Structures are given as C-alpha cells and as structure tokens.
Amino acid sequence: MQDKLRIGLALGSGSARGWSHIGVIRALEEAGIVPDVIAGTSVGAVVGAVYAAGELDRFETWIRGVTWQKVVGMLDLRMGGGLIEGSRLVDFFRARFDDPGIEHLPRTFACVATDLANGREVWLRDGPVIDAVRASIALPGLFTPAWLDGRLLVDGGLVNPVPVSLCRALGADFVIAVDLNWNLVTRRSHVQGEIRPDQREALEAAVEAAQPAPQRGLLEGVLARFVPAGWRNGASSARVAGALPSMLDVLTSSLNIMQVRITESRLAGEPADAMIRPRLADVTAMDYHRAAYSIAEGRRAAGQALSQIHEQLAACR
Question: Is 225 exposed, middle or buried (0-12, 13-18, 19+ CB in 10 A)?
Fold first, then answer.
C-alpha cells in the first residue's frame, strides 16, 4: 500500500463556464480534499495553472470584478487564423503573474493541446506556464493557433475535453473530473441572441477603436460575424423571428456538440473515479463576466458529490 493516495483533479474545457472550476476547488478544499495533481484542458488549463501556482485567491478576486466591457477590451481582433490573436491576454498575465515554468510549480500540473498539423493530442508538462495555457485555450475560429516548440497548437478540447488520462499519467491514484459541457446539447436556450445590446455596444466600440475611421467596412464585417442579424437591424429583443444565429453562435454551438460527444467517448474508455457536473447550460461561451454565478454553481455541484467522493476515497485507502 502506498503511504498516501495521490488525488488528481481533471478540469475540463468549457469557455466562460470554466470559472465554475474555482467553486469546485473551494468546495473540495473545505471538505479536506486537496488535489496533488492537476490536469486541465482549455479554460480548465487556465484555472488549473493558477491553482497549481498558488494564485487562486488573487485570480478569483480579479475575475469577480470583470465586466463585459473589460472582456471586450482584452480582445485583439484580427482576420486570419482566428478572430482573436490573444496577445493582449497573454501580456496581461505576464505582467501580473510570475511564470517559473510548469516543472517548478508547487503542485504537479500539465495541460492538453491539439497539434493542428496531425490532430494528435499534446501533453504540455514543462516550459513556460503561460505559453502552454495559451496553446490549450486556442479555440479554433475564435483564437489564433499558438506556435510552441515548432508545433502549431489549438484547443485541447478537440481531443481530450476532460483530461482524466493525463491526470493518471501524472501519477494520480484517484481522479476527480469536472465536466462543464455534459448538458449543452439538450439545452433549449438562446442560441440566437447570446449577445445583449449593452454587450454589442461594447464590442462595437472596441472594434472601432482598434481600426482607423475609414475602415468602417471591417467593423461591420466583424460585427456581422459576431452578432445575430436581429441586433444589426436594431431589434430590441435578442430572439428575432427568422433571424439567423451569428457565426460565433454557430461555431460555439457546433464545438459544444463535438466536445460533448468526444467527452462521452473518452470517459467511457478512461473513466474518472468521481465526476462533478455543474449545470451551466445558460452560461454562454463569452460570459466571462458572470464569474460569481459560475463559481457558485461549481461549489453547489461539488457539494452534491462530496458524500460519494468521501466514500470512494475511503474504499481506496
């Protein structure tokens, strides 16, 4: 028997729903369950890296103060490889957080990305933390791919949305997995109109500020891809009869479907010892300003699973 059971935490992909990972971690720690190993995919890599670095308190304080305007202000829009280059976001984190390298973090951590050239799953287990996380969050169509170690990498959610296998490879004996996307396919939600009027105004201002005045056509082109037709026609309601969803809506909904199916397949062959599934179908891909809600739901979902987790841990010891 080992002296200590190594607990792993696999934090899944899910865009803005990922802030719920913080609530999960808080609930687990309060219950005396402290992970030794953290593996993350996409936004799970963001929260996992911050947690592994011992910076979760500071990070939570920051994201709770994020508004939609601040989210838009960090988007460096471009037309090539993806709508968002991501350099502003990377520069923001480099300026505020130390990066000792993955191998020097206080807790064992790694994250998942996808090699765009061959579709292979890539496990990032050393090197700069911020560069690895940037590769893991490179959602196709939204973020531009990331060059890392001679490879062009995109979001790890394409191949391993809930990285249980990586947790085990890092030495975890008992893996707790967090699946953020499990109920997205069946949701009856606002696919049309996920951007509200106040969000549209902030997005328009950010794009316009980034472009010279004569290039108004580019602004309209970008908005046409982000915003449903109903908004561009000045409608007061997001649900406009006959209005087609925006490109962003179609892209994120399609990726949601893909990740749900991939997650089901991967977890069937590589099951976790315990699962936590927050209910976040009403949190859209870009709702990064709704941190308080997502964190609370993560805490609630983890709290529901605690009794079962304790029983399973006791059986393993």
Answer: middle
CA nearest to 142, candidates 223, 79, 73, 82: 82
Q: Are 275 and 13 in contact (CB under 8 A)?
A: no
Among 134, 141, 162, CA closest to 246 = 141
**Residue 183 pLDDT class (50, 70, 90 cuts):** confident
Residue 185's CB is within 10 A of a number of other CB atoms, namely 15
Give pTM, 2 decimals. Answer: 0.81
Q: Please state, in angstroms and rounded to a whole number, the distance separating the CA atoms of residues 257 and 10.
A: 20
Classify 68 as helix, strand or coil.
Answer: helix
- Residues annotated as catalytic are 42, 155
Q: Which amino acid is residue 235, in one-letter code?
A: A
Q: Which amino acid is at 38?
A: I
Buried b (16+ CB within 10 A) or exposed e, 116-155: beeeebbbbbeeebbbbbbbbbbbbbbbbbbebeebbbbb
Per-residue pLDDT tens over the stretch 205-214 = 554 554 444 3
What would the two tokens of residue 1 be? 């028997």
Number of residues in the chain: 317
DSSP state of 143: E
The predicted structure's pLDDT at residue 81: 54
Tell me the pLDDT tens digit for each residue of 147-156: 999 999 999 9
* Beta pairing partners, 146: 153
Please measure the distance between the N-terminal and C-terminal CA atoms of the chain and give it in whole angstroms. Answer: 8
